[in-house]
Amino acid sequence: MHKHHAIAAALLLIAQAVHANGKAAAPNAVAYIGWPQDGSTVAAGKPFRVWFGLRNMGVAPKGVDYPNTGHHHLLIDTDLPPLDHEIPSDRNHLHFGAGETETMIELPPGRHTLQLLMGDDRHMPHDPPVYSKRISITVR
Q1: Pairwise pLDDT comparison (41 vs 8), residue with the higher score
Q2: Mean per-residue pLDDT of the chain
Q3: Is a pLDDT exceeding 80 seen at residue 31?
């Protein structure tokens, strides 16, 4: 009987761990930054457009639980956050929970990095996580 209790407890822990991850994403889903391109230079002192690309997956606002969908998060000058936690919301992690596929941002002069990370209806990275290549731009 004790063996069965141990197995049941282990299965419960596995179920809780799985639930902590984001919703499933198609393994062939691809996020990318359509503009600016890696190595681009943008003008300082005014906002510039960033547009988000996504293939083999749909965009849905936060709170909408529909299979193989999510919303964009733009990471500015930061590494990917832990992929088993909710995506932070701060000046380095911009959320686009209404389903936006582009934005206007202004950055100070210098070199910056941009990267997209998809989040599910609860701002959790998907399983497997869907993120773009990190690009570098110069604001001058």
Answers
A1: 41
A2: 89
A3: yes
- For residues 76 and 114, the answer to whether their CB atoms sit within 8 Å is yes
**One-letter identity of residue 14:** I
The string of DSSP letters for 91-137 reads: TTEEE-TT--SEEEE---SEEEEEEEEEE-TTSPBPBS--BPPPEEE
Task: State whether CATH 2.60.40.10 applies to domain 2-139.
Answer: yes
Report yes or no: 105 and 112 within 8 Å, Cβ to Cβ: no
Domain boundaries, the chain: 2-139
CA 101 to CA 6: how far, in whole Å? Answer: 47
Q: In whole angstroms, what is the distance from residue 101 CA to residue 98 CA?
A: 9
Say if residues 107 and 138 touch (Cβ distance below 8 Å): no
Measured distance CA(8)–CA(32) in Å, rounded:
42
Contacts of 20 (CB under 8 A, 6+ apart): 84
Lowest average pLDDT, out of 20-24, 101-105, 115-119, goes to 20-24
Mean pLDDT of 2-14: 51
